[in-house]
């Protein structure tokens, strides 16, 4: 996570080491009692995919609480113990997961299966489009560490610039968009990867995992077909976000163009007047009827654009996380994406 305090992780890991907490204590006793494997995930998409495939054969834990913001999430010592004691650990694998890699490097992973979702699909670099507010270079976070990648300076220069090096004259590594699950076809590939991981750690139930994954894949393919038909018949193919844009894979999959205030992984919340004016002009010029915000957003930017244009403000679910009430009411990746079908129709027709 871009704003995650690396020193905090280090302190937690030192405390963890001194407690002598090792694999085989509380969690293993629980597993031996329930005969279930333990699956730990960082955020909602892998959590939901895992529970669709594992059924009742696994105890599945999501570290990020419903309603929580992943960009400011800090694991507790209990979270580290959960990771070390699990059979299957699922995380996204992008820059925002630097904290995960610090933990994995510091615990015994020999008896667990670890899967990064970004390793199961083809990834694309995060995109900075015209009018988009870029992440500012926070010099005050010189205490920031990027797990050894101290030469990352993507926050300070536009992607479109011809700068190819950093202040250390080293090549800047690309930053990849992490929201891989927003494309249902990517979700199919992620499902396959999780199914294979479950079969590896729990071969006794492999047949059930394969059957569940096949049934779930059918549902994902049906959702994909619905989105394709919706976009194919649309009168416009452009969407506007007064917010971050975590839908790059979704837009690429269905041939949508977009304008947004921030890229998907930005930690910025206050756009410049120029960014708001740019998006407002786009809505007016292209007669776009809807301006989107994402879930858990305060919606201030979208409302500002709406007031200036008359466009309706609607929420498009990236499924990155969900509210506590949605979680308790049993919302899933599929149910949230199905809501997106109706919402997107208002914007494109």
Automatic annotation (TrEMBL):
Highest taxon of the lineage: Bacteria
UniProt-recorded name of the protein: Zinc ABC transporter substrate-binding protein
């Amino acid at each position: 996570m871009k704003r995650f305090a690396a020193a905090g992780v280090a302190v937690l890991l030192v405390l963890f080491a001194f407690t002598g907490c090792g694999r085989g204590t509380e969690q293993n006793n629980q597993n031996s009692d329930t005969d279930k494997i333990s699956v730990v995930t960082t955020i909602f998409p892998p959590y939901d995919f895992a529970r669709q495939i594992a059924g009742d054969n696994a105890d599945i834990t999501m570290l990020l609480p419903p309603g929580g913001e992943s960009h400011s999430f800090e694991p507790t010592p209990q979270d580290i113990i959960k990771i070390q004691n699990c059979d299957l650990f699922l995380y996204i694998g992008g820059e925002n997961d630097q904290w995960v890699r610090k933990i994995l490097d510091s615990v015994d992973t020999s008896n667990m299966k670890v899967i990064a979702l970004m390793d199961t699909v083809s990834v694309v670099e995060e995109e900075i489009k015209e009018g988009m507010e870029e992440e500012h270079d926070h010099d005050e976070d010189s205490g920031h560490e990027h797990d050894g990648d101290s030469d990352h300076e993507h926050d300070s220069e536009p992607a479109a610039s011809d700068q190819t090096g950093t202040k250390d004259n080293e090549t800047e590594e690309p930053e990849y968009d992490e929201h891989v699950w927003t494309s249902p076809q990517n979700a199919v590939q992620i499902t396959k990867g999780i199914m294979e991981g479950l079969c590896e750690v729990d071969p006794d139930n492999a047949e059930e995992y394969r059957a569940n994954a096949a049934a779930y894949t059918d549902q994902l393919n049906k959702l994909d077909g619905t989105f394709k038909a919706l976009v194919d018949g649309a009168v416009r193919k452009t969407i506007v976000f007064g917010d971050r844009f975590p839908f790059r894979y979704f837009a690429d999959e269905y041939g949508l163009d977009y304008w947004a205030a921030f890229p998907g992984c930005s930690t910025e919340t206050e756009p410049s007047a120029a960014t708001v004016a740019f998006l407002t002009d786009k809505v007016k010029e292209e007669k776009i009827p809807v301006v989107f915000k994402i879930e858990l957003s305060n919606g201030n930017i979208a409302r500002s654009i709406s007031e200036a244009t008359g466009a309706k403000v609607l929420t498009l679910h990236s499924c990155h996380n969900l509210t506590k009430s949605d979680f308790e009411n049993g919302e899933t990746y599929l149910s949230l994406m199905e809501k997106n079908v109706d919402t997107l129709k208002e914007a494109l027709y």
